[in-house]
Specification:
globular, two-stranded antiparallel sheet, binds heme C, mainly alpha, Cytochrome Bc1 Complex, Chain D, domain 2
Amino acid sequence: MRLAAVFAISAALIFLTPQSYAADSDVYALRCVICHQPNAQGVPGMYPPLAHSIGPDLQLKQGRHYLIQVALNGMTGPVNVNGIIYNGLMPPFAQLSDAEIADALNYVLTKFNADKLPKNFAPITAAEVKHARATHDSPTELPHERASLLSDLKKAHLNDGAAR
Ligand code: HEC
């Protein structure tokens, strides 16, 4: 009987462990989904959508920089996304590894922005994230950085129909 119980417990552990670790590799599901939602559509007025939205940012080097800075440092202050003003507080994720930050952003970009990515799209790398950590753009500065990025994309006709 005791042996059977031990066997049952170890079988349960073997069954459960890989499941909980499997979720760990999906950084978006663990860290971002609660606000930006499983389909990255956000919650209107509270959490901005990331789907069909941030892809064109990658047309410019400053856009790669902006996205990495938001993920590392968080953001607060008014931003206009698809005509809706968000003035929320995204927490910083600097505690995640370089690879995890790159993972979360690449997931949103490739899964939900494939139609808006530049033709020469190159995924964000852990090395870029590592490099970006030295800059520390502040959460209140980032809405301004975003505004000048969007205006530069418009000037260069690179916004590619993204409504933001
Ligand atoms: C607690 C809620 C919350 C979580 C968790 C969260 N975000 Fe955000 N995110 C926000 C809010 C709120 C904003 C807008 C901030 C503002 O109003 O200035 C935002 C903005 C963004 C933007 C800028 C969008 C744009 O249009 O420029 C990106 C990119 C982003 N988040 C990515 C992520 C990623 C990646 C994660 C997970 C690592 C994440 N967020 C986790 C709430 C959250």
